[in-house]
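FAQ

Q: What does a record look like?
A: Structure on top, sequence underneath. For example:
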């Protein structure tokens, strides 16, 4: 049976890789590790950052989401190869108590790479922790808890503002789904936080930040409203406009976005409008925009007719060489890494909210 399942997995991976190579702009698609390289069967919520000599990615892995053995695992990419993943953080409290770990977020400050993540029994009662590495992920300083009421970037990467402040998009699920911002003027030594930015009836979490000319900021948010919600700030993230729906659907799954060096904006998301509160995750898309308002179809990253497949929780960055790097959950079994050349993207308009065929 294991041989049959392994053959089926290889076949599916081969078909997926071939389909991706036909997409304009994709120059590389690979898995960060093989299932035989790790002791855990399930993974989710990846993050990626550039290092001095390559890349580093992290995610949570264990028996299944919410299980106590779920820890934060990381792999580095140097000399054209990903390292065998290693557990770098977990929720061990003492000999008789361990909590699951959640949603790692990597950020390179220039002096060190910070790894923010969450620990706790579930999303309503977790807390934020952080650790760092000064040797591109070879060794890590001891983990420590963030100040009370500070969760750190909840899923998506922080952005460094023109005034030197680190803006961390965050949210809570304690009393409804609500977004807020956490701001540090000194790369995480001290913090301040905004008020909640949305009414809990809107049910928004996990914002991602885009940067516009003249310091204007935009966030895109996962929501329960079947659409990605957006908001704008002109005061370095202290206050934000009322949340408004975009023309992009949201299946109640995580998204991520990045502003490119040329000023265009990239969004990775599932272009699926759910019939109810939750939707399928069997399609993963890249959209592109000049203004953060009008979006065009850029790259179809995954497209599986089976609604039980899952391609979700993307992370996206642009490296110094201009390439776009994306990681995401592949069927809760593996973490996939895709590289896109933005100069080769051929976008198409979406008519009536439909992804073009």
């Amino acid at each position: 049976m294991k041989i049959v399942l392994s053959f089926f997995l290889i076949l599916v991976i081969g078909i997926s890789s071939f389909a991706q190579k036909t997409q304009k702009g994709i120059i590389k698609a690979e898995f960060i590790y093989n299932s035989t390289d790790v002791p855990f069967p399930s993974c989710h919520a990846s993050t990626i950052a550039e290092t001095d000599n390559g890349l580093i990615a992290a995610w949570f892995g264990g028996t299944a989401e919410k299980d106590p053995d779920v820890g934060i695992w990381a792999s580095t990419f140097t000399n054209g190869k990903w390292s065998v993943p290693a557990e770098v953080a977990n929720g061990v409290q003492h000999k008789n108590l361990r909590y699951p770990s959640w949603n790692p977020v990597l950020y390179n400050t220039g002096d060190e790479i910070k790894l923010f993540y969450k620990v706790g029994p579930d999303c309503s009662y977790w807390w934020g922790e952080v650790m760092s590495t000064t040797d591109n992920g070879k060794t890590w300083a001891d983990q420590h808890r963030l100040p009370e009421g500070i969760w750190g970037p909840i899923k998506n990467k922080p952005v460094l503002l023109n005034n030197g402040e680190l803006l961390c998009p965050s949210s809570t699920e304690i009393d409804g789904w609500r977004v807020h911002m956490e701001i540090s003027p000194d790369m995480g030594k001290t913090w301040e936080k905004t008020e909640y930015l949305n009414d809990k009836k809107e049910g928004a979490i996990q914002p991602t930040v885009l940067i516009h000319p003249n310091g204007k900021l935009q966030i895109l948010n996962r929501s329960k409203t079947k659409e990605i919600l957006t908001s704008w700030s002109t005061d370095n993230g202290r206050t934000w406009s009322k949340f408004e729906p975009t023309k992009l659907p949201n299946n109640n799954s995580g998204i991520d976005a990045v502003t490119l060096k040329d000023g265009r904006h990239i969004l990775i998301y599932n272009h699926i409008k759910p019939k109810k509160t939750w939707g399928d995750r069997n399609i993963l898309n890249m959209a592109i925009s000049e203004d953060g308002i009008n979006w065009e179809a850029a790259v179809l990253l995954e497209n599986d007719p089976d609604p039980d497949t899952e391609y979700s929780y993307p992370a996206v960055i642009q490296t110094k060489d201009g390439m776009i790097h994306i990681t995401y959950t592949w069927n809760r079994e593996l973490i996939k890494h895709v590289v896109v050349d933005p100069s080769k993207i051929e976008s198409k308009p979406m008519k009536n909210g439909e992804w073009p065929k």
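Q: Is there anything notable about this one?
A: Residues 92 and 312 are 27 Å apart (CA to CA).
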